[in-house]
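Supplementary Note 3. Input sequence used for the single-chain structure prediction.
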Amino acid sequence: MRIALDTNILAYAEGVGDEFRCLQAREVIAVIPVEDILLPIQVLGELHRVLTGKAFREAGETKEAILGWSDAFTTAETSWPAMESALDLVADHGLQIWDALILSVSAEHRCRLLLSEDLQNGFTWRGVTVVNPFREQKHPLLKAVTGE
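The predicted structure, written as discrete structure tokens, is reproduced below.
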């Protein structure tokens, strides 16, 4: 099952945030098969902003972190059709454009899950279900992946 990761999951895995979420993010990433993880390029751009602006990391250290994520997992570029779909998500569902773009790219690349705490847990669009991995009640699709 292909799974996309949102920026907040990577930021927590990088140690930005509370200890519980940082640990949970690392654990969930560790149990997903490497070949099943997709990183929309938008996520890596947002992670750069978080690491430099919120965590105050140096540009070189941030660059290495971003390159490390892109070396470890498949990345997905934004296409014009994905942007058009994101515009529809904004108009039809009230999503923020950057969140909509991440969801749209995830759908374009046939992901079944998008792990995120920013979008509505359980929201499904074009076969992609948004799941907040930090919720106490785990979504059945996430349970299937983590073996819970």
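The domain at 3-146 is CATH 3.40.50.1010 (Rossmann fold). The mean pLDDT is 97.
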